[in-house]
Amino acid sequence: MLKSLWSAAVCTLALGVSGLTLAADPVVIKFSHVVAEQTPKGQGALLFKKLVEERLPGKVKVEVYPNSSLFGDGKEMEALLSGDVQMIAPSLAKFEQYTPKLQLFDLPFLFNDISAVDRFQRSPDGQGLLKAMESKNITGLAYWHNGMKQLSANKALREPGDARGLKFRVQASAVLEEQFKAVRANPRKMSFAEVYQGLQTGVVNGAENPYSNIYSQKMHEVQKFITESDHGLLDYMLITNTKFWTGLPPDIKTELDKIIVEVTTQVNKDAEKLNQDAKQSIINAKTTEIITLTPEQRGKWREAMKPVWKKFEGDIGADLIKAAEAANQAQ
Length: 331
Ligand code: LMR
Fold this sequence. Notes:
This protein is an alpha/beta fold. It has one domain: D-Maltodextrin-Binding Protein, domain 2 (3-Layer(aba) Sandwich). It has helices at residues 2-24, 40-55, 76-82, 114-122, 124-129, 174-181, 195-201, 211-216, 242-246, 250-285, 295-305, 308-316, 318-326; strands at 27-32, 60-65, 87-88, 138-153, 167-170, 186-189, 206-209, 225-241, 289-292. Strands 1, 2, 3, 4, 7, 8 and 9 form a seven-stranded mixed beta sheet that branches. It has a two-stranded parallel ribbon with strand order 5-6. Residues 34-35, 41, 73, 91, 146, 171, 192, 209, 213, 234 line the site of (2S)-2-hydroxybutanedioic acid.
């Protein structure tokens, strides 16, 4: 009797202690991504971790996993939905399974420059798209820039005809497949982590990415030419699992929301400089010739690729495309 009373008391004590421990456990946010740390997204993830740990010490812990070290881009969405990670920032090209609307951002030659992208992303239409996947348990928290994409290849690409027959790596996006088909090239979907090897071994001959990704993945070492085409956008949506996010204690969520606003401002301010620095590093490496297009040559790429818009107008919505185009006019 005495023995069982004693063990009951020990048990209660143990439960009490573990209950206390549980209550004091910090919320853990695993942030997984596929790029290097010296890129806009890589820097954004690290700044988020720094600010969270300064302002919510002991309450929230952020673990950042760069370079596909935890999940590659084929798996990171599933990991977010199953609760294996709590935050990711896939490029806007990687959402087509979850909403057709975000295919908007991949339409070639839609935005003239990153200021137009900013205007659209801040508009009610742009902000509305952050909520387009809530029924799938995905909440968009912010847009983060990387920047405009450049074409790379082992052949000089000056006119659309130069791309004919070449194999280009594309992200998992039907729009991007059509974009390369429009110039009679062969698109091949491939995860980001495989691109360097794909280019090195000749599985693909070319690719498209902003300078920061080209340089940090050493793609310039296996590409003789980069055409500064600015033909499309590579930006991100910072997303979380809706159930996880709405289940956070309100004081923590409010602070995290504030931090995200601050980090987003910083990422979007620094992204262009990171791309320009990466461009300079590529020039210094002397591995790759950077080709500047004349307005006439660029016009030919636009003309060849623009018919892609029509193919996706039904999925995306003609009004949304119009609204994005209108953002090219500075107010
Ligand atoms: C790519 O797959 O090329 C990019 O989406 C990688 C990234 O996250 O910037």
